[in-house]
Amino acid sequence: MSSPYLESLFSLENRIAVVIGGTGELCGAMAEGLAGAGAEVVLVGRNEAKASARLERIAAAGGNAWFHAADATSRADLIALRDAVLARSGRIDVLVNGAGVNSPTPLMDIPEDEFDRIISANVKGVLMACQVFGEHLLSAPDGGSIINIGSASARVPLSRVFTYSASKAAVHNLTKNIAREWATKGVRVNLLVPGFFPAEQNRKVLTPDRVETIMGHTPMKRFGQAKELIGATLFLASNAASSFVTGAEIEVDGGFHAMTI
């Protein structure tokens, strides 16, 4: 039996959610969840072909979504994205900052251009999106929710992903700073922190020995599935469910963060 209370708590009917990085595996699943809760979802990425299968699944489930091409490291693209969504849909309620890149380059071999590329995508892109969309959210009657994607490597650096770890540590810090700045202005800013989810950007570093180490540090002894991010996404997206939550780090990691020895 459905519960009207729960439905109202997590409903995103008449809400508009922009998912930057929505053409990827993890944020794509989050986008499906947002659409399933009633939101109109804008999938954002560089490649429409990668978005097509996700858009088809959302439509088949009765959801509403569309694609907008944008480079998350371009302020001009982000402004054009924001303006296109407002022109088409009239409002923006949820922003997911999920674009990101990774590299397993050994420490002494990291070239400057690779470091700059990762920092630009993972940190600068988040900052600019918060600024660009914040211009709207801060003046919107209902405020809004920004969900930045953190990482288990942000607090204690993980081996083999040096620049990625540094960039995600910056995202965690940046998110808390913005959350503090906007706490009284109706805009909540939180972190969704996935543990180990096999995805396009991390398959290169999931060697057999690394998988064994990860499983030894994950109490649930398995990888996460992309759909397991949906519950936390809906919680953070809903003003009704998480109205007093900002600057939080919500781990979805099978207990990885709770493990020491």
From TrEMBL:
Molecular-function GO term, any one: oxidoreductase activity, acting on the CH-OH group of donors, NAD or NADP as acceptor
Keyword match Oxidoreductase: yes
The family this protein is said to belong to: Belongs to the short-chain dehydrogenases/reductases (SDR) family.
Membrane-crossing segments per the record: none
Domain of life, per lineage: Bacteria
PANTHER family: 3-OXOACYL-[ACYL-CARRIER-PROTEIN] REDUCTASE FABG, SHORT-CHAIN DEHYDROGENASES/REDUCTASES FAMILY MEMBER
InterPro entries: KR_dom, NAD(P)-bd_dom_sf, Sc_DH/Rdtase_CS, SDR_fam
Keywords: Oxidoreductase
Organism of provenance: Synoicihabitans lomoniglobus
Protein name per its UniProtKB record: SDR family oxidoreductase
Pfam families recorded: adh_short_C2 (PF13561)
Domain named Ketoreductase: residues: 15-185
